[in-house]
Design goal:
The structure holds two protein chains of two kinds. Chain A is mostly helical. Helix content of chain A is 74%, strand content 0%. The N and C termini of chain B lie far apart (69 Å). About 2% of the residues of chain B have low confidence. Classes of the chains: A mainly alpha, B alpha/beta. At the A-B interface, helix 1, helix 2, helix 3 and helix 4 of A face helix 1, helix 2, helix 3, helix 4 and helix 8 of B.
Chain lengths: 108, 463
């Protein structure tokens, strides 16, 4: 039992380390995002936060039909709606921000 | 696959997500970023499917097809003006997915290596219940935000007595439930946490509405990230922790930028109830003041004789879907060698960057769309400011009137331009409930009517 406890607390400390470093990376990366693209930022973060599908797949994975498997499958459906929806909407938005060919007006 | 290979693949996936966000620093690099994000997601999913314990490919495949189909249809059909609702709806799904994954982990801890049924590690239980709590709050909060943005429920802030006290008590109650859950591992307690958290999510968003919605959406964006983080800790999965932290940080920074754009603390936004009844107190009686009213022909005349025009779009433009007509107007003016640019206030619209997307949709080149600090010093040398569907963000009272609720809010200095054109439905006050003295100035012309119709009429008059 002792072994298990210290093992799991090790994992927790590693997770915590990763967490804080990721927060700092997130802080700097997000501040570098141009304000014009704040809407795509929201939709793409939406899509990537659906990486929670990893947990849903693990739950839906085992054979047989338990409660947790059903929950896992619902989780997979919800997350994929988001993944597909999020990335496609982001794509649609970003393709609007393509450089436009210059109109025939002269720049002053 | 060995667990080391899995970790490395997850790390690659996490790095690709970071690059996806990094790409958004410029429109030209953003599309590559989005593709990197997709690759990262594919790697994460395929890696997980390779796990020995994952056997039921058929069921997972069906689930992916269903979800993918729904997501694709929604994303392709959605109107750009409806983006804020869509984002809110997507947030709710992340929250709900987090609850389901946590529940699955609770009922089948063996699959996640967090112990056995009835003897799950205490630390995992704590992480699980925190993930559940945040997930459920995100879910119901986003559903309510969706309803408010969609117009299904009143967008006005709803306030009642002891609101914050009740929320605080509910929060403490949930904390107590989490302690009991960790000690007893009872499924009934787990579901009680879910239900009470859903209730709290509703109560947290209910007092916030109207122009505060950008902050709410950003906050829920942040929550959905922290929910993913909580699940990441439960499953000891670094990919989930990293991604959740990125999303959480992103939403938190956006909330900060939005509330700064209104010169209000995040706390005061969250406590809600801004605008509505108490704000009408500040409005003095202006019925005796004279308003200069004009029509589309007058506006066309003023615009045509200018050298430089700055267009200030607001939520009203989005509601009227006037962006295409507005762009047409801008193009005609550019043909007359008039310097046309767009000025975007940080909180214009109902979500961060809302106006930029709408203008981009109408094919306005992004070089002509400028942020507040980039363009504000140009107003004194600008002849015409064309304000369409915006109000509070132009109100000089924010700089001069210390008693005004919007005092201190950064505003676009339209009053410094030679003349101002206001496209508005009526003389009504903006969301803050504060009257705008600009309406009564000599050099202001009010153009009453629907934003889209007005632009179309100006276009006709210009031709």
């Amino acid at each position: 039992m002792d072994g298990i406890v210290s093992h799991s607390s090790d994992i927790f400390v590693i997770g915590l380390t990763v967490f804080f470093l990721a927060c700092i990376i997130g802080y700097y990366v997000v501040w570098s995002v141009t304000p014009a693209l704040h809407s795509p930022l929201m939709s793409v973060t939406n899509a990537i936060s659906s990486v929670i599908i990893v947990g849903a797949i693990l739950a839906a994975g085992p054979g047989g039909y338990g409660v947790s498997k059903i929950f896992g499958m619902i989780g997979v459906i919800l997350a994929t709606v988001n993944i597909f929806g999020g990335f496609i909407v982001t794509y649609r938005m970003l393709s609007m921000f393509k450089k436009k060919p210059k109109t025939k007006k002269e720049e002053q | 696959m060995s667990s080391n290979i899995v970790s490395v693949l997850y790390l690659i996936s996490a790095l690709l997500f970071i690059f996806a966000l990094r790409g958004l620093s410029h429109p030209e690099s953003s599309r590559l970023g989005n593709i990197l994000g997709i690759i990262g997601m594919v790697i994460a999913i395929v890696t997980t499917l390779m796990f020995k314990s994952v056997l039921s490919y058929t069921e997972i495949g069906v689930a992916v097809l269903i979800g993918g189909f729904i997501g694709t249809i929604i994303a392709l059909k959605i109107e750009m003006t409806a983006l804020p609702q869509l984002v809110a709806a997507f947030h709710s799904l992340v929250g709900l997915a987090a609850v389901f994954v946590a529940a699955a982990a609770f009922y089948d801890p063996m699959s996640f290596n967090i112990g056995n049924v009835g003897s799950i590690f205490k630390s995992s239980l704590v992480e699980m219940s925190i993930g559940t709590f945040i997930g459920a709050v995100t879910f119901s909060g986003s559903v309510l935000a969706f309803g408010k943005l969609q117009g299904t429920i009143s967008g006005n802030p709803i306030v009642f007595k002891f609101q914050h006290l009740i929320n605080a008590l509910i929060f403490l109650f949930i904390l107590a439930l989490i302690v009991i859950f960790v000690l007893t591992q009872l499924s009934s307690i787990f579901w009680t946490i879910v239900i009470i958290s859903i209730l709290l999510g509703f109560l947290v968003v209910i007092p916030i509405g109207g122009a505060d919605m950008p902050v709410v959406i950003s906050m829920l964006n942040s929550y959905s990230g922290w929910a993913a983080c909580g699940i990441g800790f439960t499953l000891s999965n670094n990919l989930l922790i990293i991604t959740g932290a990125l999303v959480g940080a992103s939403g938190a920074i956006l909330s900060y930028i939005m509330s700064k754009g209104m010169n209000r603390s995040i706390i005061s936004v969250v406590l809600g109830g801004f605008g509505g009844e108490q704000a009408s107190v500040g409005g003095s009686d202006n019925s005796d003041k004279i308003v200069k009213q004009g029509n589309a022909e007058d506006a066309a005349y003023i615009l045509k004789n200018a050298d430089s025009v700055i267009i200030i779009p607001g939520y009203g433009m989005a509601v009227a879907q006037a962006q295409h007509a507005l762009k047409e107007m801008g193009d005609l003016l550019k043909k007359e060698n008039i310097n046309v640019r767009y000025a975007i206030h940080p909180v214009a619209g109902r979500m961060p960057g809302h106006m930029n997307v709408l203008l981009a949709e109408a094919n306005v080149p992004y070089e002509e769309v400028l942020e507040l600090e980039e363009i504000n010093h140009d107003f004194p040398v600008t002849e015409v400011s064309f304000v369409i569907g915006a109000n509070d963000v132009t109100n000089p009272a924010a700089k001069t009137d210390k008693t005004s609720p919007i005092y201190g809010m950064p505003i676009l200095d339209v009053e410094k331009s030679d003349s101002v054109l206001f496209v508005k439905r009526s003389l009504a006050t903006g969301y803050s409930g504060v009257d705008n003295e600009l309406f009564y100035r000599d050099n202001t012309t009010m153009l009453f009517g629907d934003a889209k119709k007005m632009c179309e009429n100006i276009v006709k008059a210009l031709r």
